[in-house]
């Protein structure tokens, strides 16, 4: 019993003394920080193998059948027909004997077997102005069937809209693409390289017209599809490159005729708005026709090659709203040919355009997207002429893409392909070297030397985003998506060869992944039945992955040049996978990326040209260079860890350049600032990086032409930048302040003493008058400032409270021109970005309220306030820099001097950090309060009263206040947490004491019973 009483007494004494005991609290700067691990990516694998099907036959294995006189005419044996068979689900001639090829061997109703090119029945041999001549078999196409009316009507409506709303410029360009050699037309896509190409091969054309000619019914047809665009290529410096174009265009299976005759679909100028073919007949029910030309049919050779045809021709009339270009009326299928010769689907001109473009693009991939976009434009121009419909053009693209892949995969063509790529690189590379450019840069820089004449402006193909959007639109033409949606992408066997030189640093498997992740959706007519060829978006694929559905490792060898040395991935990359960059080349990411697996840099350069270049995961640098060049700050959603290598930031403004949502862990590496486009003529403090936590520092920090020091705070890294060989102009001599701008009202612009357009200044200093504690500036004085310039308000004569008033007009101008404002008083200065003003059209006031001095402070005490529109701005999106002049006589250790603010709730002083320089201390804050400077370890930190007196706190045994003994550099005082632990301990002790007394009383009670 006595023992229990003794224990109770001890516990009571503990309760009485617990308020003077503090539990140990580990300062944040002493907490163990764990180095982030490398990104883990995903364990998923992407299978891009095409599904096994009996039909269509794989193109790369069976494309040779297109050269066989019998096999080429049957869908079951010619894969270039079977991949187009989705057209039969939209419109069909509905004659099985023609589809299976028996019409070519078994006599039809007229007693004759069809001939190759006849179409489904024997064609009519002509009216020849003889109204008594009757069609031998008027039931031609009697079985035709519109199987998908919605798509078929949309298809013809597109032609009606285009042909009824085309411009004169569009008409002339479409006429040229119709009558000129297709290779000649494709030359436009060479862009800045066209001059070099034309000088070497000397391409020619005999087709030269004017816009006025287009409104005339010309009585001639020019046929110039005989490689005039290749000129005299053999034996020239571009022989090997042109040999590939010749191979793809003429020696490889390239004819669209078997498909045209197989499907035998009508031309749009024969169809009404429902897609029906309705002949115009006279009162006797006989067909009406139009006659163009005169005399017997004749042909003559053109100077450039090809031929010109003239003579009388007859054209049957149909119910239609489609308008053929008048200059091309003579080129339509004549009545003597009948519909059997129509062959609208697929478009042969479109196919020839793509075949030519693929050859050029393989040899010169620096213009890959431009060549394919030019081919797409040539397809569109087939519609502008009134000769073809969207489905015809889509069919031509699908077929030529597959034909090209077949040629690229043939082993016997490997040497031709390699020579073409090397040849173009050497010839155009030499021209680029002469200009001091890389081949890619030269291929996309239109200079004054560009004199190549075409139907288009030289800048036509230079807008990459516009090219990309145009090409994707023409993959479907916006036709109804009434098929099955949501089908997985299908990458045809051998399709990866189409990207071989465009992405030479990727493996075949990776190029298939690129095609897979950039394909268009399913459900569009003709595309889903093409075994994947129709859904390939090669222009988007040329911009890299669309998603990381598995982990991607890129190893680039810059010594191989061209895209091995530098490539751009411009797509918005999604997915759960990670990116690992290896090798020596540069990979630039420009998209709005959201891939989640993280980014690992092990070699070379990885350039972030957008704010979200690295997706939503971690960024981990083992070696190599991270280059930041985006217009917006780079946002790393996870952790950013550097072990080695370098972080290079191209700066053109003083904004934060890097925002890390997680931890910024610097275990080595260098920081290099490129200020070549950001002229700094006075010292500047810029918050380069922000993070949830900053740990470590860079090994070296450099900036050509500038001295740079970096201060690493808990949540940011601040760079102090000063031009080499200059003193810090941030605190100019008050006897001779620098005033590059006119402080008074500028002279009247009409004054001849002033230049009409004075040079804009990157910085302007104004010294306003102060009346009754309020300072104002003249609005006109601001106009001397250049965009992103610095405005300094010199109030160094002011040692007390002052209020700077800015009008709504001034606020609007400062925000629009992204001006940084420096306000300098005698003992304190403030630097803030104009973007911190919330409203563009409301006046604002910046108030400096000097309070009574504190004995322990080493600087003046100021309360700062910004009001706008009658409301106080409590926090700032971009941090404000404060600089206090320090009384050096009060300072024992400069490294311990920090700026503190008074917490308005706890009334305690909390440190925000500080960097000592030339008798001043500087730090940043995102809110305003009361601020002053203390020397850490020496100052008694008590709340300040209105009269400047401090509330004393009990001292610890070593003479320091209990709060001061716990302060760590840059950390908030841990009072709140300590008191919490005290209360918890006290409660525990009271609980135990009460329990003991309860049992004592019970024991006593039991003894007296």
Taking the sheet with the most strands, its summary is:
10 strands, mixed
* C-alpha geometry: elongated
**In whole angstroms, how far apart are the ends?**
18 Å
Number of helices: 20
Helix content: 10-25%
Q: Give the structural class.
A: alpha/beta
Would you identify the regions where 5 or more consecutive residues have pLDDT less than 50?
A: 15-31, 121-130, 132-139, 727-757, 937-983
The fraction of residues in strands falls at: 15-25%
Oligomer class: single chain
Count structural domains: 3
What's the total count of β strands? 40
Rg computed from alpha carbons, rounded to a whole number of angstroms: 40 Å
Give the rounded overall mean pLDDT: 84
Would you kindly provide a written description of the structure presented here, covering whatever features stand out?
Residues 15-31, 121-130, 132-139, 727-757 and 937-983 have low confidence and may be disordered. The protein starts with a helix and ends with a helix. A hairpin with a 6-residue loop joins strand 36 (897-902) and strand 37. The chain has 20 helices and 40 strands. The chain is an alpha/beta fold. The protein has three domains: 148-465, no CATH class; 548-728, no CATH class; 761-972, no CATH class. Strands 8, 10, 12, 14, 16, 17, 19, 21, 23 and 24 form a ten-stranded mixed beta sheet that branches. Strands 26, 27, 29, 32, 33, 34, 36, 37 and 40 form a nine-stranded mixed beta sheet that branches. The chain crosses the membrane at residues 981-1000. Keywords: Cell wall, Membrane, Peptidoglycan-anchor, Secreted, Signal, Transmembrane, Transmembrane helix. Residues 37-52 have a biased composition (Polar residues).
């Amino acid at each position: 019993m006595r023992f229990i009483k003794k224990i109770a007494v001890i516990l009571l004494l503990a309760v009485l003394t617990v308020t003077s005991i503090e539990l140990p609290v580990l300062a944040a700067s002493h907490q163990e920080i764990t180095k982030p691990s490398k990104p883990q990516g995903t364990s998923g694998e992407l299978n891009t193998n095409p599904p096994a099907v009996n039909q269509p036959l794989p193109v790369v294995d069976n494309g040779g059948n297109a050269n066989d006189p019998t096999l080429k005419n049957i869908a079951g044996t010619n894969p270039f027909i079977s991949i187009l068979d989705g057209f039969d689900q939209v419109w069909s001639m509905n004659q099985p004997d023609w589809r299976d090829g028996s019409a070519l061997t078994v006599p039809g109703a007229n007693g004759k077997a069809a001939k190759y090119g006849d179409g489904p029945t024997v064609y009519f041999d002509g009216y020849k102005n003889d109204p008594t001549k009757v069609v031998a078999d008027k039931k031609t196409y009697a079985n035709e069937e519109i199987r998908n009316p919605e798509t078929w009507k949309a298809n013809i409506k597109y032609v009606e809209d285009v042909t009824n709303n085309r411009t004169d410029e569009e008409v002339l360009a479409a006429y040229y693409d119709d009558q000129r050699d297709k290779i000649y037309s494709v030359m436009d896509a060479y862009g800045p390289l066209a001059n070099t190409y034309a000088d070497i091969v000397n391409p020619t054309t005999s087709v030269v017209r004017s816009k006025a000619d287009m409104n005339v019914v010309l009585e001639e047809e020019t046929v110039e599809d005989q490689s005039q665009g290749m000129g005299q290529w053999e034996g020239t410096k571009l022989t090997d490159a042109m040999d590939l174009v010749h191979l793809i265009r003429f020696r490889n299976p390239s004819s669209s005729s078997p498909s045209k005759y197989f499907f035998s679909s009508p031309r749009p100028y024969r169809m009404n708005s429902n897609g029906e073919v309705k002949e115009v007949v006279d009162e006797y029910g006989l067909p009406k026709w139009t006659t163009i030309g005169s005399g017997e049919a004749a042909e003559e050779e053109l100077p450039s090659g090809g031929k010109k045809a003239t003579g009388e021709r007859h054209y049957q009339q149909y119910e239609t709203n489609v308008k053929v270009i008048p200059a091309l009326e003579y080129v339509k299928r004549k009545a003597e040919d009948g519909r059997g010769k129509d062959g609208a689907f697929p478009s042969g001109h479109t196919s020839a355009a793509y075949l030519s473009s693929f050859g050029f693009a393989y040899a010169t991939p620096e213009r890959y997207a431009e060549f394919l976009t030019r081919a797409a434009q040539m397809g569109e121009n087939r519609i502008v002429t009134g000769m073809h419909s969207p489905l015809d053009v889509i069919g031509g693209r699908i077929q030529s893409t597959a034909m090209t892949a077949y040629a690229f995969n043939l082993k016997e063509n490997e040497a031709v392909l390699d020579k073409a790529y090397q040849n173009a690189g050497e010839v155009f590379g030499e021209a680029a070297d002469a200009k001091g450019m890389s081949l890619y840069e030269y291929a996309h820089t239109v200079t004054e030397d560009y004199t190549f004449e075409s139907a288009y402006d030289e800048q036509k193909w230079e807008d990459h985003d516009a090219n990309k959007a145009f090409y994707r639109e023409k993959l479907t033409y916006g036709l109804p998506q009434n098929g099955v949606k949501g089908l997985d992408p299908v990458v045809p066997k051998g399709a990866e060869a189409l990207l071989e030189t465009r992405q030479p640093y990727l493996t075949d498997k990776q190029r298939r992944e690129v095609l897979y992740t950039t394909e268009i959706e399913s459900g569009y007519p003709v595309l889903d039945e093409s075994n994947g060829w129709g859904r390939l978006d090669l222009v988007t694929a040329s911009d890299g992955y669309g998603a990381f559905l598995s982990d991607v490792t890129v190893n680039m060898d810059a010594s191989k040049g061209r895209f091995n040395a530098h490539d751009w991935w411009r797509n918005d990359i999604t997915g759960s996978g990670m990116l690992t960059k290896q090798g020596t080349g540069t990979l630039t990411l420009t998209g709005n990326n959201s891939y989640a697996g993280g980014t690992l840099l092990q070699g070379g350069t990885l350039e972030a040209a957008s704010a979200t270049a690295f997706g939503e995961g971690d960024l981990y640098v083992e070696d190599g260079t991270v280059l930041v060049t985006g217009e917006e700050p780079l946002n790393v959603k996870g952790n950013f860890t550097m072990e080695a290598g370098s972080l290079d930031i191209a700066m053109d403004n003083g904004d934060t350049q890097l925002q890390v949502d997680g931890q910024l862990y610097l275990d080595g590496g260098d920081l290099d600032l490129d200020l070549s486009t950001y002229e700094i003529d006075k010292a500047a403090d810029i918050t380069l990086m922000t993070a949830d936590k900053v740990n470590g520092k860079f090994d070296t920090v450099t900036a050509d032409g500038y001295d740079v020091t970096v201060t690493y705070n808990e949540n940011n890294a601040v760079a102090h930048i000063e031009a080499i060989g200059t003193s810090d102009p941030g605190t100019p001599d008050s006897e001779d302040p620098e005033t590059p701008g006119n402080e008074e009202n500028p002279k009247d612009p009409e004054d001849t003493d002033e230049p009409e357009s004075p040079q804009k200044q990157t910085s302007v200093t104004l010294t306003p008058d102060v009346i009754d504690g309020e300072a104002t500036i003249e609005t006109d004085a601001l106009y001397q400032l250049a965009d992103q310039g610095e405005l300094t308000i010199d109030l160094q004569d002011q040692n007390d409270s002052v209020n700077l008033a800015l009008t709504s007009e001034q606020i609007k101008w400062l925000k629009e021109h992204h001006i940084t404002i420096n306000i300098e008083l005698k003992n304190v200065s403030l630097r803030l970005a104009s973007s911190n003003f919330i409203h563009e059209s409301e006046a604002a006031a910046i108030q400096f309220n000097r309070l009574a001095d504190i004995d322990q402070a080493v600087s003046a005490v100021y309360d700062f306030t910004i009001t706008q529109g009658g409301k106080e701005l409590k926090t700032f999106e971009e941090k404000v820099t404060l600089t206090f002049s320090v009384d050096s006589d009060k300072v024992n250790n400069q490294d311990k001097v920090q700026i503190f603010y008074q917490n308005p709730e706890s009334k305690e002083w909390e440190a925000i950090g500080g960097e000592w320089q030339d008798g001043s201390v500087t730090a940043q804050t995102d809110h305003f309060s009361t601020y002053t400077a203390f020397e850490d370890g020496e100052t008694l930190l008590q709340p300040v009263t209105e009269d400047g007196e401090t509330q004393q706190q009990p001292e610890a045994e070593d003479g320091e206040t209990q709060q001061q003994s716990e302060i760590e550099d840059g950390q908030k005082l841990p009072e709140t947490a300590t008191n919490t632990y005290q209360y918890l301990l006290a409660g525990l002790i009271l609980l135990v004491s009460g329990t003991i007394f309860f049992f004592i009383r019970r024991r006593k009670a039991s003894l007296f019973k």
